[in-house]
Write a structure and sequence with these properties.
Strand content: 25-35%
Distance between the termini: 48 Å
CATH architecture of the largest domain: 2-Layer Sandwich
Order of helices and strands: EHEHHHEEEHEEEHEEHHEEEHEEHEHEEH
CATH superfamily of the largest domain: VC0802-like
CATH class of the largest domain: Alpha Beta
Number of domains: 2
Bound molecules: adenosine-5'-diphosphate, aspartic acid, magnesium ion
Structural class: alpha/beta
Radius of gyration: 23 Å
């Protein structure tokens, strides 16, 4: 008998019949003797609908009020699921973030969890009750409702699992687990039995929205066994763990991630002198805009070109700031492009193998895909390309690195030992 946290995402609770199905799954775990805490998202599309309503009133709604609004989506689902469980003869109780003391900081829209009061959950569990918790939401010490950022119910689930010391945190979604790439882009994507926390963290941060990055971070930090699996199909799903040797699939490349939310800004002909990067990016940081990749050219004529990427939502604002500062920066030109994407290959095996980057560039060049920017770290290589080539690039790389092969050694995937 285990203590499980089961999280069901938006598509898993997207209709009454799906909520009934989730109730049946929870009951089946109960009947196998497990104690279950369920964390749910809002019904699919609901969070977007609520945000759109707010936008009809204001282009910049007060963040506190937006949180009060969007957190209602999850409150609907917890009540409906608890009703469904009760109707099927199982004792269940729903709780909002506030009710279970999901304490966060006061950064509305992307609050970070500080602590959870596990007493209430554990005492209900002891009474044989299924506890149903609203994901995505928390409360500040002063009692203001907060939300954890899009996809934040994953993080709620992991935090609850850590607080009650659950045996496993199971993230149920609309695919069978974590694949070598988004199965909606590449139908030949292969389901991974395992992936390391490190790789999953990279995949999530590089755009694989199957898990919210902070959920992976939290699980890694607090040692929460984390599994992604399907609500609608049977299977073991994907276990995210530390084991880098043992039974792990020792792939050179574990997966390909991509991010469509990218935009690029270029500023050319600025004086090549100390402090120029700060002068360019300082005002961007002051506007609370996160910068991702940065490239500064080596210049021969005492001027240099500078390119960086931001989230597409921040594109207009970034461009406006730089255009405003262009004269002061003595720039020749400021330009931008919000039709770019980032494609990244991730794998712990990259550490010990040379040649992955050049093979990646060769594959893209064979498809005549121009690389605009490159960035690498120990276990990933990212490139910025035109968005129209996204699917082509992902599929070409997936095939060239033989990611669809079920071989545990990914033999063809490996380059010769160097
Ligand atoms: P939920 O509503 O359950 O939280 P999400 O839409 O947030 O579901 O995440 C599941 C989706 O993540 C899948 O439908 C899939 O399209 C996408 N996805 C992106 N990359 C991957 C990947 N590498 N493996 C599996 N799914 C992925
Ligand atoms: N409902 C929230 C969202 O759509 C949180 C979640 O689904 O995880 O982002
Ligand atoms: Mg999600």
């Amino acid at each position: 008998m285990a203590l499980l946290v089961q999280k069901f995402g938006g598509t898993s609770v997207g209709s009454i019949s799906k909520i009934q199905h989730v109730a049946d799954k929870v009951i089946s775990a109960r009947e196998q003797g497990h104690d279950v805490v369920v964390v749910v998202s809002a019904m699919s599309g609901e969070t977007n609908r609520l945000i759109d309503l707010a936008k009809e009133i204001s282009t910049a709604p007060p963040p506190r009020e937006l949180d009060v609004l969007v957190s209602t989506g999850e409150q609907v689902t917890i009540a409906l699921l608890s009703m469904a469980l009760t109707e099927k003869g199982h004792s269940a109780r729903s709780y909002t973030g506030t009710q279970i003391g999901m304490l966060t900081d006061n950064v509305h829209g992307k609050a970070r969890i500080r602590s959870i009061n596990s007493e209430r959950i554990l005492s209900d569990i002891k009474r044989g009750c299924v506890v149903v918790v609203a994901g995505f939401q928390g409360v500040t010490g002063e009692g203001h409702i907060t939300t954890l950022g899009r996809g934040g119910s994953d993080t709620s689930a992991v935090a609850v699992a850590a607080a009650i010391n659950a045996d496993e945190c199971q993230i149920y979604t609309d695919v069978k687990g974590v694949y070598t790439t988004d199965p909606r882009i590449e139908s030949k994507a292969r389901l991974l039995k395992n992936i390391t926390f490190e790789e999953m963290l990279e995949m999530a941060s590089l755009g694989s929205k199957v898990l919210q990055i902070r959920a992976v971070e939290f699980a890694g930090k607090h040692n929460v066994p984390l599994r992604v699996l399907s609500t609608f199909e049977e299977g073991e799903g994907t276990l995210i763990n530390y084991d880098e040797e043992g039974g792990m699939e020792q792939a050179l490349i574990s997966g390909i991630a991509f991010n469509r939310d990218e935009a690029q800004i270029t500023i050319t002909g600025v004086p090549d002198k100390p402090g120029i990067a700060f002068q360019i990016l300082g005002p961007i940081a002051e506007a609370n805009i996160e910068v991702d990749m940065i490239v500064q050219n080596v210049a021969g004529d005492e001027t240099t070109d500078f390119t960086f990427t931001v989230h597409r939502n921040d594109y207009d604002c970034s461009l406006k700031i730089l255009k405003k500062n262009a004269v002061e920066l003595q720039a020749e030109d400021v330009s931008g492009d919000d039709t770019i994407v980032k494609v990244s290959m991730v794998g712990v095996g990259m550490r010990s193998h040379a040649g992955i980057a050049s093979k990646m560039f060769e594959v893209l060049s064979k498809e005549s895909i121009n690389i605009r920017m490159i960035s690498t770290s120990e276990i990933k290589i990212s490139v910025i390309i035109d968005e129209k080539y996204l699917e082509l690039a992902v599929r070409a790389l997936h095939s060239a690195f033989n990611l669809e092969e079920p071989s545990p050694q990914n033999e063809e995937n490996s380059l010769s030992e160097t």
